[in-house]
Amino acid sequence: MSTEKWKVTFCISRQKGSEQRTFQNFDLEVDPDEYVLDGVERIWAFHDRSLAFRHACHHSTCGACAMLVNSVEKLTCITPIRSVTHNGGVIKIEPLRNFPVVSDLVVDMSRFYQHMEEVRFDQVAPVEKCSLPYEDQPLKNLEEDQERLVDCIECGSCISACPVALTTPAYLGPAVLAGAQHTLSVLDQNRCVLDFIDSENGVWRCHSGFECTEVCPSNVDPAWRIMDMRRRVIANRIKRLFGRK
Amino acid sequence: MTNDSSAGKLLRWFDPRHRKIGSWAFILNRITAIGLTIYLGMHLYMLGKLAQGPEAYNDFIELAHTPLIKFGEMFVIAGGLIHGLNGIRIGLTSFGIGVRYQKPMFVGLMVLAGAGIIIFGVKMFF
Amino acid sequence: MDLTPSQRKPQETTWLWFLKIIAGLLIVFLLGLHFIVNHFLGPAQGLLDYNAVIQYYNNPIIPTIEIVFLIVVVFHSLVGSRSIILDLHPSAKIIRIIDIVLIVLGSAAVIYGTWLVIVVAAK
């Protein structure tokens, strides 16, 4: 146990209903090896019970606690305070971008979840379909079919970081396109999913900013998957051009 | 009730702060794209002088040799090199080639662009 | 649920995007050619006076390269402009108007440029 103590100011975005956003400062004494979410929880517990934020598992499995920490998307439950500020410094915490704000740090992700369903994103898949093709297969020669949870925890960080999602709320966004790519690699080719992402707000809107992959806390590499999707869609289109369904 | 007003959004689109190299490439690409499109229009218009006979064209070439126009041309060369070389990166990654190496690719291509800009600058002004 | 093209909302389509990328890669090659040919292989000191240009255009390969280059560049720049405009998420109606404007603009630029090349080549 470290006994180091830091004085840190949490500058937290507050917004209820249709109010304008304001920032409220909370001075905390923290252990720098604590996580950002620990600080937010302490503010809620000891300073202001009206502070709204989402959290559940505290070990980067549920994806509920993604927030903007000093203007960068972070999964706050695994972001050590040491990594985002210094003793006497400030941590600015805002809700994710590109989602409607419900209250303070809570955003409405229902539309995103709905899109994930539309691309038939399944959180469980055969082990060999879960890794990215360029990675080493962690488990080889499995004797029987084994499944695991896929990497995407649907935290919304990539959509918050995406420069295209910033311009239009209708853009499906990196996680959904990556989810579609995952579905297609499990189900082979699926016309419904292909048509869904080969659409006005689909795979062609991506401007190759690669921000999604930068902020993804869970090794999904959405940018790689979007590029892979493009290749699949083009291949499918060329096949269709020559009359093959 | 989204996070920002739509006017604010458009500005933040070009905001390089807290962004990584991929976004800088995107911002550069978009700015150079707009610049080069404007240049294309001007270039086509100016070459129209060729149809008006020798005097009109030769006068235009004389104008093109003033330092101010040369300075403007440097922007076109810089824009062309940046947009073209970064375009190679976008073209390749769009077909799934080298997506994981997009950052070193960008740095390498921009070093090339920088070298090209210096070479053209030296040739044009000295 | 296949929509016919007229029912479908105008969008960034697969083919436009694909051709934009292909055109972009072609331009890298053609611009290099355009530049080297016009400024280094052309008459001494480049195309810096009227007579040099006229003489240079007598070789039929030059007008051919220039016309192909013109079409590809105009296409790439206008499709690119359309992508930028789409990011401002205009309504379907405005996109249709913009599409028409861009097609007219592109055709005009190509016709004008081709006419210019032919005029110069014929002198």
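qc> Chain C has a mean pLDDT of 83.
qc> done
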